[in-house]
């Protein structure tokens, strides 16, 4: 049972990280979840157990590293209000600053 809880936490993390980067949270959640289920269905012997977690970790790595900084050429989203904004916009449609501009101002 512990594995299911870890999986849910991992999928929620992937989804929220994808949304922070202006990607589709649902898409990456589905890719990670379906891949996990595929390996889960393949059996529970040692190597397959490792493979299904490698898959989840791989999807997380993809969300984290393959897609660059969302401020460069990608639409972005403030996690708080969830509105999508154009790549060049310095402020959100709701009037708040870009999260990274805000972080820089607070630093
Ligand atoms: Zn906003």
SSE arrangement:
Layout: H1 2-20, H2 25-41, H3 46-66, E1 76-77, E2 84-85, H4 99-106
Antiparallel strand pairs: 1-2
The structure holds zinc ion (ZN).
Describe the fold and architecture.
Helix content is 61%, strand content 4%. The longest helix is centred in the middle third of the chain and has 21 residues. The protein has two domains: 67 residues; 34 residues, no CATH class. It has a two-stranded antiparallel ribbon. The chain is mainly alpha-helical and 107 residues long. The chain starts with a helix and ends with a helix. β1 and β2 form a beta hairpin. Bound molecules: zinc ion (ZN). The site of zinc ion has 7 residues, from loops. Zinc ion (ZN) binds next to loops.
Main beta sheet: 2 strands, antiparallel
The counted number of beta strands is 2
| Share of helical residues | 55-70%
Q: What does the overall shape look like?
A: elongated
Unreliably modeled segments: none
Spatial order of the strands in the main sheet? 1-2
Report the sheet-strand fraction: under 5%
Secondary-structure element series:
HHHEEH
Class computed from helices, strands and strand pairing: mainly alpha
How many discrete domains?
A: 2
Give the terminus-to-terminus CA distance.
42 Å
Q: Mean pLDDT across all residues, rounded?
A: 83
> How much is the radius of gyration in Å?
17 Å
| Count of helical regions | 4
What binds here, in terms of ligands, is: zinc ion
Essential attributes:
single chain, mainly alpha, two-stranded antiparallel sheet, 4 helices, 2 strands, elongated, binds zinc ion
